[in-house]
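Bug #2210: token dump truncated for Fe2OG dioxygenase domain-containing protein?
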Amino acid sequence: MATATTLSPSIITSNAESTNLEVNPPTTNDGPFNPKKHLAFAPPARIYTMADIGLPPDVGVSPVAVSEPFPLFTREAVMRMRDEALAGPVLENCQYSSSLAQSQLRGYADKYAPFIYAAWKHPTTVDIISRVAGIDLAVQFDLEIGHINLSRKPDNNNNNTVATPSQQPSSCSRDNEPIVGWHTDSYPFVCVVMLSECSGMVGGETELRMGSHGGGGGGGTLKIRSPQMGHAVVLQGRYITHRALRALPLASLPGGSDSEEPERITMVTSFRPRDPHVRDDTVLTTVRPVSDLGELYAQFAAYRLEMLAARIQTQLAELRSSTDATGKGERTRMGVEARRLKEFLREQRDFLERTEREIVDEQEVVKGVDTDSVRSDPSIDSM
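Reproduced locally. Full output below:
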């Protein structure tokens, strides 16, 4: 059975509706991001734990596996985000394709999208995601703010206007392949927000592989329904193998008429535990092939070294306190256990070695080819 997590009814006050958002309203610049104006948070109806999906208790950094969709951003916020993310400079300079996902926009937020950047960096937004995730989180780093997955590439000549499903032209067949194949994420947590109108769609779920620990998951799969426009799903994606299924128009059902595959644009921002002493299993396997490696490595190394520095400072304070038990600067014979000190040093050595392994030489990285993701039958054990 799924476990419901109790959250406060509302973290912020919103004067905008969070459902039934339109696709093509006129967009106006209503100023910088304001959580009271642009957030529409309400707690998810259900949160699945790692135990619920059959994973052992030592997997992950939080008991939370995935949330049901919940309202996060208002209509105005979504339209501002679409304007920024689908602007010409972003499409021209920040679009990538890989063996995992056909069309992606990455690394644009801090350069071209001030509203998106501010929305995800705002403490209120981060606090909401942390509450749903069951652990205090921080944005992974700037490069991973607002990653866009596109199921159908926008028109470069008219990229801010997208036809509703009823307006879209007809086509004959539907590709049943997922938008994003089986994989585990590079980062501990992700928050996925829908930027498209979904009222005329079926499908589009996120499908998770379940484990069999404790009989919780039974080894099958779990589908989390697609969020509505402006709604979000929080997923501990580093530890759960998952994929994004393709959405189809309602007209494609038996008795309906064929129509073109609907637009499906999702925005993904990645998070990591804020506490530098919490285990960090971040890898770069899914993002190296679709990133500016110089920028990626700089931001990755910077936060890892900041974590290391914080851990060393904590250990140094403990060492100093062990020789100053009186608090008066007098050296004592308390000292420190060699075993504990060596364990700490080994952990930091391993941390540095894992960091170094993720920084692969540029000539060894094949752009667009993700060789580490899982895109096989769900019966195969997850990575």
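Output looks complete on our side. The longest helix spans residues 293-322. Marking as cannot-reproduce; reopen if the truncation happens again.
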